[in-house]
Amino acid sequence: SLLFSFFFFSFSFLFFCLALIRLDTVILHIAYLHFLDHYCEKSEARMAGQSARRAVVITPDHFSFNAETAADNAFMSATLEQEELKLKVMAEHRNLIDALTHAGVELVVVKGEGLSPDECFPNNWFSTHSVSDPFQSVLYPMATPSRRREVECERVRTVLSEEYPNMHDMSAMCDADGDFVLEGTGSLVLDRVHKKAYCGLSVRATDRALDEFCTKLGYEKIDCIAKDGKGTVIYHTNVWLSIGSNYVVVCEDAVVKDEKGKRFLASLHESGKTIIPISHKQVLAFCGNILELENEKGEKVLAMSEKARRGFSSEQMEELEKCVDRIVSADFDSIETHGGGGVRCCLAELF
Fold first, then answer.
1. What is the Cα–Cα distance from 334 to 343, expressed in whole angstroms?
2. Strands (DSSP E) along the chain, which ranges?
3. Residue 41 above 50 pLDDT?
4. What stretch of H or E contains 217?
5. For residue 182, what is the DSSP state?
6. Is the confidence at residue 64, as pLDDT, over 80?
7. Are 111 and 61 in contact (CB under 8 A)?
8. Partner of 187 for a Cys bridge, out of 11, 45, 205, 272, CB 3.0 to 4.6 A?
9. What is the C-alpha separation between 35 and 32, in angstroms, rounded?
10. What does the alpha-carbon distance between residue 57 and residue 43 come to, in Å, rounded to a whole number?
11. Computed over its alpha carbons, how large is the radius of gyration of the chain?
């Protein structure tokens, strides 16, 4: 009887231990699957795609008319006193954040640090890229001294160092004679899927800096000269060209039709995307300064200003609506007029 009890309790304890081991194995397996699912989802989001699921916005707490950048930016003019201007731009920027958040787009909102009057245009000084690219983030050499300080933004630099540690710092290569300048995705409009870098050369985008980007990131260089209706070289490419997953909005009339210009336009037409031509007048309405993002449901969300929405014809809007799932717009008149940049300029994608 005593011996039976000993064996009974021994075997019971053994089975109990085996059951615990099996339970631990199941729990570990479930945890592993959960980790794998999370990792794959995050990796998938970071793989090459045209639209990002997140973007950085920097609030325009210290916004003002920048006479230095106005020298070659024909979109800029000063019409409001500083106090009134600040109230308007803060409200416009807040409305854009609210509209995109309501559409399900994730935004990393950074408070302006006063590094530059134009710091609400962060896409000019940094870009991020997919895990399949040689570098996952790039810092850019800015044309004007007042804007070069923007790369010191502590909060954004923290995000970049934590999530995109493999960085190529072109900002440190900026030279005194202005021969090495490239203002991020203001100068560059990227077809990220096909690895093509479209760029209108200007004092904000020099050939030498464009070569550096394309060589280091493995992009095909496709450049041209683009001019406005008065024959002046347009300072940034992203005011007359936008590339989405299924559309290309482009001012073909702006492109100088030399060999490079012809190749530039031919490449866009060979993309298989819907081509939506815009006029010089529509460029001034910021119809080219639009950006496709992706929300939490995977829907394509197209961001633009109210001025741009009004600037598109009804037929053009119908074409855009076929190419994306949602179109979001916000009144951006004061920022566009006094800053010379629009909605796209205020959104720096996080891939």
1. 12
2. 54-58, 106-110, 126-128, 137-139, 167-169, 188-191, 196-200, 220-224, 241-243, 247-250, 274-277, 291-294, 300-305, 326-330, 348-350
3. no
4. helix 207-217
5. B
6. yes
7. yes
8. 205
9. 5
10. 23
11. 25
